[in-house]
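**Backbone description:**
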Amino acid sequence: MRMLYYMVAGAVICLPAIFIMVSLWWHDKPVVAVGASGAIFGLYGIILAVIVFKVLDAEWNKFLLILLACTAGVSLVMGFFSQGVDNSAHVGGLVAGLVVGSVFAYQFKRRAGVGRLEA
């Protein structure tokens, strides 16, 4: 199932490049903004959806938020200051993962009932 999340996030990251939304905001001309890092940020987006929709209990949400801030936050900041890093793919992946993760979180909570999951 984890591989499915990775593949969906990787596929959805192509959408900002195809529609040239995020990419044009970042670049002077259209470029392809895809890659493994975009898919990784898609997974970060799925984690963010799990936090936002409170799929897990408060302790896990806090842990995941700290983990997300340390990994995704630092990666984004480093991308802004590094030459040759395409942050449009990172932001696109994060947004795409948040959208995909929101659907998964909604479905999961609907099947599991209204309460939170105890990890």
About this structure: Residues 18 and 82 are 24 Å apart (CA to CA). The chain has one domain: 2-25+35-112. The mean pLDDT is 76. Residues 2-25+35-112 form one domain.
